[in-house]
Input
Amino acid sequence: QSALTQPASVSGSPGQSITISCTGTSSDVGSYNLVSWYQQHPGKAPKLMIYEVSKRPSGVSNRFSGSRSGNTASLTISGLQAEDEADYYCCSYAGFSTYVFGTGTKVTVL
Amino acid sequence: QVQLQESGPGLVKPSGTLSLTCAVSGGSISSTNWWTWVRQPPGKGLEWIGEIYHSGNTNYNPSLKSRVTISVDKSKNQFALKLSSVTAADTAVYYCSRKRCSGGSCSWFDPWGQGTLVTVSS
Output
């Protein structure tokens, strides 16, 4: 059970859109619509941003959206804002009642 | 609104056992949710440790399964983590969380406790 692969860092200017990829295998991301995304600010607990690939919890800005194609899931942040600067982690169901997180991506707002 | 709070020793000796508790408030641990532990070594990513249902059913990360025990205490509305034979590699912030369900599938974690740092050192 290996961690899902995410780019180490992604950056963008305020107002721009960025996309974070999360690549797994046919045993996890590719087999289930059970990918979630978490935002983590320094020294804070993770916060749920997206669940079941593309669903947004109540209270999360509609600037955050998720999708999946094959073994890769993606999180897109549109209209990038300074407050979006944080680490982002994907997570997928990996079968046999287990879960695997991504390696994490640091988002920098230029 | 469910809230979670981790507690336990912040320092554990190598080869010892790490023991943490997660207190659940604002809801019953006997609700239809699974209760989860996740850890994060300093400066590194998140790792799913395992989960428990109020019935006592558990699921563990295969890489940790031989050393992990998760238990539930319904009378205290809390659940616990024990990790044995710890080494410096087990130094991490440990989070507890609730796994949410929808339409029969359960896969996302919300909310999370604030986390507690456990250092393994002599």
